[in-house]
Write a structure and sequence with these properties.
145 residues; alpha+beta; Glutaredoxin; globular
Length: 145
Amino acid sequence: MAHIVFYGKPDCPANARQRKQLEAAGHTLEVRDLTAEPWTAETLRPFFSSRPVNTWLNKLHPKVRTNAIDPDAQTPDKALEHMIADPTLIRRPLMAAKGEMRFGFDPVAVDDWIGLRAKADGQSCDEKHAQGRCDHGHHQFPKAS
């Protein structure tokens, strides 16, 4: 199991579900408040690796939803500038584990990276989806035949 530095918003229900799922899989978490962190371009940029800049921003943020900030029009430097000025623009969570830094919570990608098999039932996210019993908040269910 991994030790994960988990940056999220304390009042975010999705982050709470993600933390619960990671802990159920046996990981230890060092939870930090994403909005209280003194971000710089140097500390924030590694989380985004080579992923497209338009995926870095929180798509539910009011400035993004109203097109006041267009994710498709951002350069890496400009996106970092926006996120440093307003950390709620950061697509969360940010996670660091096993020498890697990542953003967002794609259960399949997280399972491949550090594992999400819950100790309680020993089933992976994909196995739960196949049974129609997603329990971690993104509500994917298998398509009806």
